[in-house]
Amino acid sequence: MLTNKEVEQIAKQMLKDRKKLPNRIKAKERQAEGRGLRTSMLSRRTRLSQREVELAVVGRTYTQHVADSMHVQKAENLFGHMRGANEQDQIALDEITGMMIGSEAWGAEGVAVDGVVHTFEKAAELAAKEAQSLREEMNLIDEALDDLASYDEKGASILRLQYVEGKSVVAVMMKLTDDGDAEEGLAESTYHYWRKGALREFGRLVGLC
User: Fold this and answer.
1) Fewer Cβ in 10 A, N or C end of the chain?
2) How far apart are CA 148 and CA 23, in angstroms?
3) How far is 179 from 61, CA to CA, in rounded Å?
4) What pTM, to 2 d.p., does this model score?
């Protein structure tokens, strides 16, 4: 079970991230449509060095018929104990290992997403799922703030203004006073007491406790 302090920290981060979510959703939606997916550098070059051709062939051969995660343990067993005779050889070994475990794309046949290689279709599918997950997270935050406002309008305002909109404590205190939510001369200690209470309530509403 999370402590009150942990609930407050997680709630703060969720609220701060809220303003980034629309653009993150758009980015994932673009990827789901096949736009913005980062394909291998090899696929964007018209000419490959002999070394790159060899690496691409090894990667394609090893990962043939494997659409998602690569054989990480097998790759580590094969290459983990090997060391190149010189710096160039070591770089080649590292690149091959990356292809084997699926952290590097191989030619035009793979797309690297968050350090893992997938087929283009799989990467687009994962992006669509991530966009949906981000939409659900944004809706959860918005609904929790609306629910909080139904019985603690002052607390919900504090969370929206300070964390979602990024206003300073002084600016939020002035806004509360101007709106009649607080008497003139509101003590900062009182403000922080209200804020902590609102963070914990928000935490309960999003299922943190």
Assistant:
1) N
2) 25
3) 67
4) 0.68
